[in-house]
Specification:
single chain; alpha/beta
Length: about 240
């Protein structure tokens, strides 16, 4: 199971939001690329980058910072936030991004997801963010009527092989994960799932690790590693089965 330290970029800074609320923001660094270097030095093998400004604007905003992260670290990164066209995807992959995350586009433009899966294969994954079981879009400002499980199944049907599933109600709370929710989504959809939202302790990593065989292949860590509630190096050891 892969551990993905998260770097959320807003206004050029590395921030964390509480339950996806843009009005409940904490700034952890003025230099996202320095945070990327810190997580890489602690053993991270992959980084999860979100352009929060891009998610709200509907197109990537913090491209310059993403370039600086790519120049600073030598591990792969995945990027999401405002990616809603084939050109957006192509530009990011050409820049050196390993994987591109489609979010709102899965609802607004499913034909784009189908085309992207066909053209770019596993280099495109989908982020499914849920509030009370319904998919949230546009930087989590809006909630659709589509159930997260239904969307996951649809994504599998068009060729997507990996989903990032975020439980918004738990995101940024350190309140713990319901590991079985991620496992059930993976089993029902037949797609690999990366868990996100609520991780607050090493016990959460252990709980998710139990479902790796069911398709829970990764976990995104945000507030837990920024506040020191969770040690990244220890989490990586457990996730990789090295303890």
């Amino acid at each position: 199971m892969v551990v993905f330290p998260a770097i959320d970029i807003r206004g050029g800074k590395c921030v964390r939001l509480f339950q996806g609320d843009f009005n409940k923001e904490t700034v952890f660094s003025n230099s996202p690329e320095e945070m990327a270097e810190q997580w890489a030095s602690q053993g991270a093998s992959y980084l999860h980058i979100v352009d929060l400004d891009g998610a709200r604007a509907g197109s990537p905003v913090n491209i310059f910072i993403i370039k600086k992260i790519l120049e600073t670290v030598k591990i792969p990164i995945e990027v999401g936030g405002g990616i809603r066209s084939i050109d957006n995807i192509y530009d990011l992959l050409e820049m050196g991004v390993d994987r591109v995350i489609l979010g709102s586009a899965a609802i607004d433009n499913p034909s784009l997801v189908k085309q992207a899966a066909r053209e770019f294969g596993d280099s495109v994954i989908v982020g499914v963010d849920a509030k009370d079981g319904k998919v949230a879009v546009h930087g989590w400002d809006d909630t659709s009527e589509i159930k997260s499980t239904d969307l996951a199944i649809q994504m599998g049907d068009v060729g997507i092989t990996t989903l990032i599933f975020t439980d918004i109600s738990r995101d940024g709370t350190l309140g713990g994960v319901k590991a079985e929710v991620f496992a059930n989504l993976a089993i029902r959809s037949g797609i690999n799932v990366i868990a996100s939202g609520g991780v607050g302790s090493i016990e959460d990593i252990k709980a998710l690790k139990k479902y790796e065989k069911d398709g829970v292949i990764g976990v995104i860590l945000g507030k837990s590693i920024y506040t020191g509630a969770l040690d990244l190096s220890e989490a990586i050891k457990i996730a990789e089965g090295n303890v």
